[in-house]
Design brief:
Flagellar basal-body rod protein FlgG, elongated, alpha+beta, 20 strands, 22% helix, FlgG_G_neg, single chain, cell projection
């Protein structure tokens, strides 16, 4: 029976939905994590009687045909790039993006990666790096004797040497925008790569041309709404149960047919 496969496709779709929701909930405390949402499309339709054809005898037009759906499929899992909560840390090298944009990171293979996770540190050479030691593209090295570091909302990095009053400039943090943020390639550890779907990175100064400003001593939290996720989880569970009921009912109907005697 067609309904067996339709019900099974619904169960598979809701299983994917639960997996996406569970990943959101698991990352509710992940720095700069972006919520995901599963999107579903209906499958092809089988035309038993096509709308608009002529009836055989009276030569009239059929106003509504018979199209039998074949189930559902997962079309995409979108990222929802809304602003996460800003969390004060008090650490000079913690930087949050307040608005759109991504930091540029030099990956181990020399290519550019992108992240909104601004939990930076200094390495042995005084370079600003991520938690994995990947260099933040833009600012230069900060001397070990620097006693204070300031990062402006526009991305200018300054430091003050011990015993001196004047501030020295270490460089400029630039951020990038993408036409289609949802099309970026997530590779884990809060990093993203450019893809054909995302378009090329558009580099610029924070706070200009739609880019968000930088906020020193803050980190961006996850944008996951736990209440919404729990509600979606309950809805997905009920949908899974209803699709499983379709499979059970179809099986019972097939069993009834198989017991019929001529």
């Amino acid at each position: 029976m067609r309904s067996l496969k339709i019900g099974a496709s619904g169960m598979l779709a809701q299983q994917t939905n639960v997996e996406v929701i569970s990943n959101n909930i698991a990352n509710m405390n992940t720095t700069a994590y972006t919520q995901r949402k599963a999107i579903f499309h209906d499958l092809l339709y089988q035309n038993v009687r096509r709308a608009g054809v002529s009836s055989s005898d009276a030569d009239t037009i059929v106003p509504a045909g018979i199209q039998m759906g074949l189930g559902v499929k997962t079309a995409a899992v979108y990222r929802i790039p809304s602003q996460g909560n800003l969390l004060m840390t008090g650490k000079a090298l913690n930087v949050a993006l307040q608005g759109r944009g991504y930091f540029q990171i030099e990956m181990p293979d020399g290519t550019e990666g992108y992240t909104r996770d601004g939990s930076f540190q200094l390495n042995a050479d005084g370079e600003i790096v991520t938690h994995d030691g990947y260099r933040l593209i833009g600012p230069g090295a900060i001397p070990a004797e620097a006693e204070d570091i300031q990062i402006s909302p526009e991305g200018e990095v300054n430091y003050k040497l011990q015993g001196e009053m004047a501030w020295a400039v270490a460089g400029q943090i630039s951020t990038v925008l993408f036409v289609n943020e949802a099309g970026m390639d997530a590779i884990g550890d809060n990093y993203f790569l450019e893809s054909e779907a995302s378009g090329p990175p558009l580099e610029g100064v924070p706070g200009r041309d739609g880019r968000g400003k930088l906020l020193q001593e803050y980190l961006e939290g996850s944008n996951v709404n736990v209440v919404s996720e729990i509600t979606d989880l309950i809805s997905a569970q009920r949908a899974y149960e209803m699709n499983s009921k379709v499979v059970t009912t179809s099986d019972e109907m097939l069993s009834t047919v198989s017991r019929l005697k001529a």
